Amino acid sequence: MRLKIIILSLLLFIAFLSLTALCVDWANPSYNATEMLSSGEVTVYTNPTGFAATPQAQRELEKNKSSLDWTMPSTLTGGGSSAKESRSQAEAASQEAETSTTATSTATGETTTASATSTATDTELPPAQAEEPEVAGVEGSWYFVLSDSAERDLAVILFQKGNDVFGAGKIKEGESTLDVTASGSVADSALDLNVVSLGTISLYKLKLDLSEGSASGEYQAYSSGSDSWTGSAEGEKTA
Prior knowledge:
The chain has helices at 2-23, 33-38, 55-63, 83-123; strands at residues 140-147, 151-161, 164-173, 176-187, 190-197, 202-211, 214-223, 228-237. By secondary structure, the protein is α+β, with helices and mostly antiparallel strands. The longest helix has 41 residues, at 83-123.
């Protein structure tokens, strides 16, 4: 029994100390037991801004509250009158932008390729060209003496186109003068000239060596009566 009284006394003393601690202004204690017993801190609770005064009222406010903003914007993207129309216009604008970007990239790539090709072309050496052999110029007026068993005078005007030679003139044998045509070719300093007389048809195939405005060589002649003969030819350029 005595032990119980002691324990009860201790509990009452502890309760007294706790009550004293709660009533004291510990920020500025006066160390007066009476004042410390009668004093106490009073804290006034104020709800945070935007909250209701009671938990029940706050729950009512939160009941229909949503985190989504359902406010319709004043203008739609793309300037359409409806969401569908606005979306279509936005997609079209996006496709145009992609097309423009692709075209720009293609043009840039083509420009780069063209520039690279031009640079490569500029740096490449031109292909070697084979040197064409020099061709003697025979264009002009020529006078030849054709000698075999008889002597004939041949005067022709020759024209030249590259290696090809052609022209016309006259051939005189004794008192007879005939018109002639001439054709042939020239290679290096050699002239092959075929002369055909008209009226009394004969062919004179001249093979001549050219040297500074003069020509010399031989010829083979054929008549329309199947006769043939050979002779020598000497000539010079008169104009």
